Amino acid sequence: MSPETNPSEIPEKEPLNRKQIAFAERLGIAWAEGKRNFEDIYEEVGYKRHRGNSARLASDPRVIEIAQRACAEANRLNGLYIGYLQAKALSMLEANALVIHQTIATSKNSPSLTPEEQAHLEAVTWPLSKFKIDKDGVISVELPDKKGVIEMLAKMLGNMPDETAEAITGLGDRLDRALSRTSQAA
Description:
By secondary structure, this protein is mainly alpha-helical. The chain folds into three domains: about 15-85, no CATH class; about 95-145, no CATH class; about 145-185, no CATH class.
């Protein structure tokens, strides 16, 4: 701005239109996903692919502000989702076959369950991989592979590369074989 320019004479920018706002929001989500190709996003929201125009729009401060808010919200939601999955995985690790059998047996002998008993039954049995009651009333349950759940959690947290998980799996197999040898010798 030159010294003779009056601030009131500077034209204000027009507000963003729907496509520009959609571009900004989608750009923020792409940032949260670690993507930086704004040309694809430009085309996704309905513009004709154009490197210069997409770069110009992506550098607009108003677009950047909207994109930053969308990125923060996407990261927050992803964190909630990952947190939920982690909590579910942890409860799978804590699943106890004896508690599950006792809860099912108690519920099986009750003619009708209260809402609290129903909620307890669902909470105890949800981690089951398989559940079966045969014709004689014998209950059989199968819990998920706990080693696999631990590996999945470690990968989800980003703390264990795939090759480390494979090394741990190999170590677990060797330990299982060693334990079986010692129990056979005893």
